[in-house]
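Lay summary. Proteins are chains of building blocks that fold into shapes, and those shapes determine what they do. In this project we predict the shape from the chain. Here is one chain we studied, written as its sequence of building blocks.
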Amino acid sequence: MEKNLMQRLSENFIAAQTSMDATVGDLRVRLRGLVARMEVVLNELEDSGVGADVSALAGMSDDAASVERLARRLGEQQVNVLTASQNALKASDPRGF
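And here is the predicted shape, written in a compact code that computers can read:
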């Protein structure tokens, strides 16, 4: 059975929401990990000063780059959904005919 246009539109928006929710979840997990690592090192620095173990920061640039990629993806998803939403609204504008 072929889906009508509104069913397709609705399914596409639900798929976009699901994808965006996954991106948000991934971003939250990555950010929490970075924050936890930085808090460990900050506590070490505050407690031990120059003798602090800062090894938890190793590889942080890779994790930060991952956060940046996820943030960029979320921003692009937001723009795409906003654009699609605005385009869908144009269909209801009687002046568009």
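What the prediction tells us: The longest helix spans residues 5-48.
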